[in-house]
From TrEMBL:
Residues 175-205 form a coiled coil. Residues 214-464 form the Histidine kinase domain. Keywords: Coiled coil, Phosphoprotein. GO terms for molecular function: phosphorelay sensor kinase activity. It comes from Thiorhodococcus minor. This is histidine kinase. It holds the Pfam family PAS_4. Its EC number is 2.7.13.3. Residues 1-26 are annotated as: Disordered.
Length: 464
């Protein structure tokens, strides 16, 4: 018997249209979400890339900033960045160090306020000058923390991104050290020239010494003859006087008396005495000159002996003043005799140097005067020139002039080797230095000071 068919058996199982729509919508939503996720991934990747690039640029910016900062900090030259009105916008550590003012105290100030008064007019024209041309090697003086500092300044224009003039940049190089180095080089050059002149002068003096020694030796022999013969003549004069007196006492004949009157024998005998004395005095003076020449030519050689300092001073003054500054009035105040122990030739050289320097100092002075005095002291007197710490007796030679005096700075250097205030070629700067050493070797002191009434005073003290 056949089974009856039901409706479900006769109808095929198929998805409805609504079910199909729902499935297709779910698929599209899935695609949209996938697309959104993909876009988000791309955006995130872009953000990560941008972040990496930003960090790289930030690191590069920080490196550049640090590089610029290190460059500015290491600059020894002064850097000032200003606006067009001259107000400071940026500075470097060199300026802070020189002025002693921190950066925040400098920003906003006119850069001219950092300069000395004599530079203001020149610096005020920078704003106009840089519109046409840069400023090169303009010297300005910075009011620094300790002392004013000269700067060699270059100033140029500063423009913005659109090419508009917005300010100026000043770079200043301190020239103090360079100037001091240049001055030191000049001094070294002058000292070299002076040393060369001194070597030439020393050779000349050595030749002159040999010549003088030879001349003194040649003069000494004939002077000895003259001196000895005059002494013999003095004895003969006495004998002649004795003989004539004896003849007169024997009642000579009238003819002999007439001959005596005609020949003026009495007057001749009377004149012989002053003539012989004058000849002896002249011979003695020539002998003294020969001794002085030999002493001068001996230079630094020889041992210390006792000698008359008065004679040495008189001779030195006479030698220097002859033909030197004939209009000068040279006064001396000396005792009759003052004996000390030492090397007469060296002390003679010292006195000549002191008197010569005094004569050089009064050139061009109205009423030039030099005063030379010598005295013995029981002990050194306390004064501007000092005092003997042992209080021992001393002899003091003082040479004073009415010249312009010695500057305070030069007083400390006047005895330094090669120091001189004279033009090159007119002084070696060794005279006082050598004199100082000679006096020190004699156990004395050589000092200099300015007189209250004007002029200078050089004092030599030697043990009595």
């Amino acid at each position: 018997m056949a089974k009856p068919r039901t409706d479900t058996d006769s109808v095929e199982t198929r998805p409805t249209p609504d079910a199909l729509g729902s499935a297709e919508g779910a698929g599209r939503q899935d695609d949209l979400w996938i697309e959104v996720i993909r876009k988000m991934d791309e955006t995130y990747a872009d953000l990560v890339r941008y972040q990496v690039e930003l960090e790289q640029k930030n690191a590069a910016l920080e490196a550049a900033h640090q590089f610029i900062f290190s460059v500015l900090a290491s600059m020894t030259d002064v850097l000032i960045v200003c606006d067009i009105n001259g107000r400071i916008e940026e500075v470097n550590a060199a300026l802070e160090s020189l002025t002693g003012i921190p950066e925040e105290g400098l920003i906003g100030r006119p850069f001219q306020s950092l300069l000395t008064a004599e530079c203001l007019e020149l610096a005020s024209g920078f704003a106009e000058t840089i519109r046409n041309d840069a400023v090169h090697d303009c010297e300005l003086t910075l009011r620094a923390q300790q002392e004013d500092v000269p700067l060699a300044v270059n100033c140029s224009s500063r423009y913005d991104s659109r090419g508009r003039l917005v300010g100026m940049v000043l770079i200043g190089r301190p020239v103090g050290e360079l100037r001091r180095a240049y001055e030191a080089l000049n001094r070294a050059h002058d000292e070299l020239k002076q040393a060369q002149s001194q070597l030439i002068g020393a050779e000349k003096m050595a030749s002159l010494g040999r010549l003088v020694a030879g001349v003194a030796h040649e003069l000494n022999n004939p002077i000895s003859f003259v001196y000895g013969n005059v002494h013999a003549l003095e004895r003969y004069r006495k004998r002649l006087r004795t003989y004539c007196d004896a003849v007169d006492a024997s009642d000579p004949p009238e003819s002999l008396q007439a001959l005596k009157a005609e020949l003026r024998i009495e007057r001749l005998l009377d004149d012989l005495d002053p003539l012989i004395r004058g000849t002896l005095e002249g011979a003695e003076r020539v002998r003294d000159v020969v001794q002085d020449l030999r002493r001068f030519s001996s230079g630094q050689k020889g041992e210390h002996t006792n000698f008359d300092l008065v004679h040495v001073v008189e001779t030195a003054v006479r030698w220097v003043t002859k033909g030197s500054h004939p209009g000068a009035q040279v006064e001396t105040r000396l005792p009759e005799r003052l004996e000390i122990r030492g090397h007469a030739g060296q002390i003679h050289q010292v006195v000549m140097n002191l008197v010569q320097n005094a004569l050089d100092a009064i050139k061009g002075v109205e009423g030039p005067r030099v005063h030379v005095s010598l005295q013995a002291l029981e002990r050194a007197e306390g004064s501007a020139v000092g005092a003997d710490p042992d209080g021992a007796p001393v002899v003091r030679l003082s040479v004073e002039d009415n010249g312009p005096g010695i500057s305070e700075s030069d007083l400390l250097k006047i005895f330094d080797p090669f120091f001189t205030t004279k033009p090159v070629g007119q002084g070696t700067g060794l005279g006082l230095s050598i004199s100082y050493g000679i006096v020190a070797d004699h156990g004395g002191r050589l000092m200099a000071e300015n007189r209250a009434e004007g002029g200078a005073r050089l004092v030599m003290e030697l043990p009595a």
